[in-house]
Amino acid sequence: YPWPYTEGLRLDEARHNLTLLATGLYGESLLPQNGAPLRLVVPWKYGFKSIKAIVRIDLLEKPPATLWSSIAPNEYGFYANVNPQVDHPRWSQASERRIGENERRETLMFNGYADQVGGLYAGMDLAADY
Known about the structure:
Helix content is 10%, strand content 11%. The chain has helices at residues 11-14, 67-71, 114-117, and strands at 20-22, 24-25, 28-29, 39-41, 95-96, 105-106.
């Protein structure tokens, strides 16, 4: 894979109240395996957008070439919003299995944060801009 790992958000996504830069977890400092010293948390997006061990943040005029949208553009789009209506080319994303649960459950739009973040994507074709 290309190194370093790169990821990107729009400025309105980065500034949203649900987007966090975490330095700790469960009242303790982050450990390296959890993304120390600084981890991005974007709860309505797929996990690969919540990058670990951040070393640099750049503000750009255009979306950057991110790792996954560069090496597998037909599988991972720039936005990477949780959307149960858009399947990954190799599996359905309409249901999920939560940690500690055996049964599958319906995946919620924007990971359950549709009321809070849906307006960020008003007017976009979320099937095309995945």
